[in-house]
């Protein structure tokens, strides 16, 4: 970038988090897709410059707007340095990022397991301490919820068939995780769990599945390949063709970690569900949506005969309001 006519590269979709560093009000910039190699912290001025990185604004446009708002000139070299740092860390839509993304995606697709993403930003060389701290933290959550450590919970009776629980991070929702999964552990004696998680990642299909076993702090949690294949075969498309969202999606991973902590012998079917806003808005009917119907029929098929209940629709599915509860939610 050496001319005021140069277009600023486009900033990829990011999350911004206000932080306080030694009394300074800064902003941490995070890549929810985890292609960036680190979180970067910037001042408000730099954040304003980044907000203008849309692939349409020129350096000259930015310089004029900056001077109008601040009364100060904007040195082109300062912008160039900022752009270089963010490009070096893969936050910008550039050929540099495209090559990096292809390499990351290829490595993940060829990996034999689904690596944990819980500590992607852990300080190098301190990953083991981070995993040990997570184990201690989960044990503390169970004690606070009135349960013994998870592996010591005895299944008393086989009554639980469905668990509806949050997928918020452990730091903010740990007590709720322990309360929900602790009760589930007391009343579940099965060996297979289908995890239906929200797909927050860019996706092509309404249902995404993976056959990769999940790495957790408590060992590998294995996928039930036979059941997964049978459910996938019942869908009107191949959910494995859109497997990449599982690379960094936390909604299934957080549940998988909790299940591995409680019952490492359990096998799972990891399923990510895409957006249903078209159903919520009434643009399509869930009674006729092909993907929705196929999944609703395929999953209960392997868990006994469906019974109609009060409050259920005519397909036997409980009516529920789609919600996403979080202290900080980002939408594109």
Summarize the structure.
The protein is an alpha+beta fold and 332 residues long. It has helices at residues 44-51, 59-70, 76-88, 95-110, 127-144, 170-186, 225-233, 250-262, 277-280, 290-298; strands at 10-11, 15-21, 24-30, 40-42, 92-93, 113-114, 192-198, 207-209, 213-216, 219-221, 267-273. The chain is built from ten helices and eleven strands.
Q: In words, what does this structure look like?
A:
With 332 residues, the chain is α+β, with helices and mostly antiparallel strands. 36% of the residues lie in helices and 14% in strands. It folds into two domains: 97 residues; 170 residues, LigB-like (Protocatechuate 4,5-dioxygenase, Chain B, 3-Layer(aba) Sandwich), CATH 3.40.830.10. The strands form four sheets. Strands 2-3-4 form a three-stranded antiparallel beta sheet. A three-stranded mixed beta sheet has the order 6-9-10, with helices on one face. It starts with 9 loop residues before the first strand and ends in a 34-residue tail after the last helix.
The CATH superfamily title of the largest domain: LigB-like
- Write out the strand line-up for the largest beta sheet, numbering strands in chain order: 2-3-4
Main CATH class of the largest domain: Alpha Beta
| CATH third-level topology of the largest domain | Protocatechuate 4,5-dioxygenase, Chain B
The tally of structural domains comes to 2
